[in-house]
Amino acid sequence: MVNKVEAILDAVCQYTGGMNDPESDAYKLRNPLMVRSFAQLGKHQTDGKGHRVFSSFINGYKAGVFDLECKINGRTRANVTPNSPLEALLGCYEIRGVSAVDCIVSFLRIALEDPEITGKTPLTYFSQQ
Q1: Which of 12, 41, 65, 104 has CA 20 to 30 A from 26's CA?
Q2: What distances in angstroms separate CA 91 from CA 32, 48, 100, 118, one per listed residue?
Q3: Integer Cα distance of 19 and 15 in angstroms
Q4: To 5 degrees, how large is the angle CA 95–CA 70–CA 6?
Q5: How far apart are CA 40 and CA 33, in angstroms?
Q6: Distance CA 69, CA 55 (A)
Q7: What angle do CA 66, 68, 9 make, to 5 degrees?
Q8: CA 115, CA 108: separation in Å to the nearest integer?
Q9: Closest by alpha carbon to 25, among 94, 88, 122, 72?
Q10: pLDDT by residue (tens digit) across 85-113?
Q11: Please, which pLDDT band fits residue 129 given cuts at 50, 70 and 90?
Q12: Which residues is 36 bridged to in the sheet?
């Protein structure tokens, strides 16, 4: 069975080109989720827009999983809670608009074998394994 949090990350990674588009910022930064650093200045290496720079794809992927788990469980200042819809979570990663959300939803429906997933699906769905 596919881990639901990893499925979200995989969907975003495909959307951003983080794994297979060497021209994308996500690929160049080794940051498939395009997470930003809100730590004290100098703690993390960042690009000019505040996105974290990772030394490897694996490190960026692990950080992405951690970031998603924190947000899905409401343990951040991102204004999302476990009852927030998927589209609110995606907005944290600057994925907004019907076509962008639909792209992620289409991926998740296939990956998780659940045609009922929508942009309105509550995050609690993704925290249950």
Answers
A1: 41
A2: 15, 20, 10, 14
A3: 10
A4: 65
A5: 20
A6: 21
A7: 100
A8: 9
A9: 94
A10: 999 999 999 999 999 999 999 999 999 99
A11: low
A12: 51
Q: How many angstroms separate the CA atoms of 110 and 93, rounded?
A: 21
CA distances from 86 to 22, 41, 80, 111, 121 (A): 28, 30, 9, 15, 6
Tell me the two tokens of residue 20: 């297979």
Pairwise CA distance, residues 78 & 62, whole Å: 19
pLDDT tens per residue, range 14-67:
999 888 899 999 999 999 999 887 655 656 678 788 889 999 999 999 999 999
Exposed e or buried b per residue across 21-38, where buried means at least 16 C-beta atoms within 10 angstroms of its C-beta: eeebebbebbbbbbbbbe
What's the pLDDT score for residue 104?
A: 98
Look up residue 95 and give its amino acid.
I
Confidence of residue 114 (pLDDT cuts 50, 70, 90): very high
